[in-house]
Amino acid sequence: MIDFNNKGFFKLKQNNEYAERVTALLLEGETVVDAYKSMRDGVVFTNKRIIAVNVQGITGSKKDFTSLPYKNIVAYSVETSGTFDLDSELEIYFSALGKVKFEFTGKTSIIEISQLISRHIFG
User: Fold this and answer.
1) Which of 26, 50, 95, 118 could cross-link 68 (Cys pair, CB 3.0–4.6 Å)?
2) H helix and E strand count, the chain
3) pTM here?
4) Domain containing 21: what range?
5) How far is Cα 87 from Cα 108, in angstroms, rounded to an integer?
6) Per-residue confidence at 90, pLDDT binned at 50, 70, 90?
7) How many domains does the chain fold into?
8) Which strands form 73-79's sheet, in the order they lie side by side?
9) Cα separation of 56 and 87, whole Å?
10) How far is Cα 10 from Cα 23, in angstroms, rounded to an integer?
11) What is the DSSP letter of 40?
12) Residue 12: closest CA among 52, 49, 46
């Protein structure tokens, strides 16, 4: 399981590489909405869940996939980018898991991600 409390874990930039890597894990009717990548790790938002990918080892051939269903979200917080601080953040609170934090850099669809989560929570 990924250690989401490690602040430096995710610094993500929009990139479709991980959308392709999780294709085999998708359920029938599940589609990728957006995908992001850090140096080695990534996160994919689908229409049903969030899939966090932690690349492990020196060669990167070992990967940990953590599935975070939207139905288990109890609250979330979004911090948009500003004029000088171009990073944005997403904090999600899951029942039984606790807080998961994602940090985004560059162009990020943080508002669209927020709307996606809201549709599942309040929907």
Assistant:
1) 50
2) 2, 8
3) 0.86
4) 11-122
5) 9
6) very high
7) 1
8) 62-69, 49-56, 42-46, 32-37, 11-14, 98-104, 88-94, 73-79
9) 25
10) 21
11) S
12) 52
